[in-house]
Design brief:
alpha+beta, Outer membrane efflux proteins (OEP), two-stranded parallel ribbon, porin activity, transmembrane, transmembrane beta strand, signal, TolC-like
Length: about 450
């Protein structure tokens, strides 16, 4: 009775938990407030490309264990059962009717003899082998270690690519936010001027065309802001995609543009002349050279003998009647070793070895060419960065000049010594200067990421 109560109580509890689970709402979107480094760290844990690279590292670890296992004892067992519906026979001369010392007639027709009148057999066998010496196995152990290192470096390369992508997307959001701030400032100024001009028009001091001209500029500026807001939302979605974050979650950036030191490490680029060795691409090519060398070494090891120890134990039940099959167990065992000695292959191995040695030389040439390519890429990235940095500084000055021109044009217009066209042109020049500043700002931030990547500073 107590057992029934316990079971009933457990079932009732399970049904209650299930009911609560069905009534509770699904978890909603999460809110994150991330710095740039927070966003990068999140991407390292959640970006699918990084996850796959981490799985490749685990797979390489299992590959190492698999290769090591080939040099450990290999043990296999088998069980067989045979019911000979028709017993096997052997063929030979008839020796049953010969007299002692009589030689069988080799020209006589052959006859068949039963190969043991056994109907049932049941065999149990266990066999083991142990590799004693193999040159290819020794080289294989070296190769899988390099292969594991290759997978680890591939993970680093994936993280670097993810780091750069997240950083650029983060900067894009910051720049879009800065663009909206500039647009808001221009809209406030233009709205104030439009209100003042409208009031002056009602009093008969300015023409209606001046109001219309400002209205067109104001409407265009508002439309530009709306488009930029949508672009900002899309940029935020792109950042979450690069991070591997669900697009439904909300992401707030806590870094500001003023937190970024765009002039950092500019003067350090010409100090380290061997910086290309820090590039993960160069280190991957180093692994490629090692693997080609090990391929040639493994082929050379095929000229050496292979020695394998082996042993086995077999037990067998044999009987013509099923009821007596398991009465007697016949056993035998053995130990020994095999030596495989390559003697002559018609020149196949030596020519294959020569081909692999050529592959080694080609891999070394690719490594040398990569070093030059990385140096050229770094110099190109440095030049692009400096050009963009100078353009940004120039656009900052242009922006200040455009603001001053607009200020003076308004004063002249208000004092009656300037025209509304002059003010409109100054307003247009300021908007153009702001757009060029935003473009230059984004270019210098992106080129800084490319510069750090080119010099192997992204870890």
């Amino acid at each position: 009775m107590n057992t029934k109560k316990i079971i009933f109580s457990l079932l009732a509890g399970l049904f209650a938990l299930d009911s609560v689970a069905q009534q509770s709402p699904p978890p909603g979107p999460r809110l994150y407030k991330f710095s740039l480094q927070d966003a990068i760290n999140y991407a390292y844990e959640n970006q699918d490309s990084v996850k796959n690279a981490q799985l490749d590292v685990k797979s390489a670890e299992y590959k190492v264990k698999e290769t090591i296992a080939t040099g450990l004892p290999q043990i296999n067992g088998s069980i067989t059962f045979n019911d000979y519906l028709k017993s096997p026979v052997t063929i030979g001369p008839n020796v049953f009717n010969l007299q002692p010392g009589q030689v069988p007639d080799l020209n006589a027709r052959l006859v068949q003899f039963p190969f043991g009148p056994i109907k049932y057999t049941n065999n149990y066998t266990i066999q083991g082998t142990q590799l004693l010496f193999s040159g290819t196995f020794i080289v294989g152990l070296q190769a899988v270690k390099v292969f594991k290192e290759l997978s680890q470096r591939s993970l680093i390369r994936t993280k670097i690519e993810t780091n750069a992508a997240v950083t650029k997307a983060y900067y894009q959001v910051l720049v879009s936010d800065e663009q909206i701030k500039l647009l808001d400032a221009n809209i406030r100024q233009l709205k104030q001027q439009l209100d003042e001009t409208t009031a002056s028009n009602k009093q008969g001091f300015v023409e209606k065309i001046d109001v219309d001209r400002l209205s067109v500029q104001y409407n265009n500026l508002v439309t530009t802001r709306e488009n930029t807001v949508r672009a900002l939302a899309l940029g935020n979605q792109m950042l979450k995609f690069q991070m591997g974050m669900p697009l439904e979650d909300e992401l707030i950036l806590i870094n500001k543009l003023e937190d970024i030191d765009i002039n950092k490490q500019v003067a350090e680029n010409s100090v380290d002349t061997a910086f290309y060795r820090n590039r993960i691409e160069y280190r991957l090519l180093e692994n490629n050279v090692q693997l080609n060398q090990l391929d040639a070494k493994a082929k050379k090891a095929e000229f050496l003998p292979t020695i394998v120890a082996n042993g086995g134990y077999t037990g067998q039940f044999q009987e013509n009647q099923w009821k007596f099959l398991f009465d007697r167990f016949y056993t035998f065992s053995y130990v020994g070793f095999n030596v495989n000695i390559p003697i002559f292959s018609g020149g196949q191995r030596i020519n294959q070895l020569k081909q692999l040695r050529i592959n080694v030389e080609k891999a070394k040439n690719n490594l040398h060419n990569a070093a030059n390519g990385i140096k050229l890429q770094a110099r190109s990235a440095y030049t692009t960065y400096l050009n963009n940095l100078h353009s940004l500084n120039n656009q900052k000055n242009n922006q200040k000049l455009a603001q001053e021109v607009l200020r003076v044009s308004r004063i002249k217009y208000q004092q009656g010594v300037g025209s509304s066209i002059e003010v409109s042109q100054a307003q247009t020049a300021l908007e153009q200067a702001d757009n060029q500043y935003i473009e230059a700002l984004y270019n210098v931030l992106v080129s800084k990421v490319d510069l750090d990547k080119a010099y192997g500073r992204i870890n």
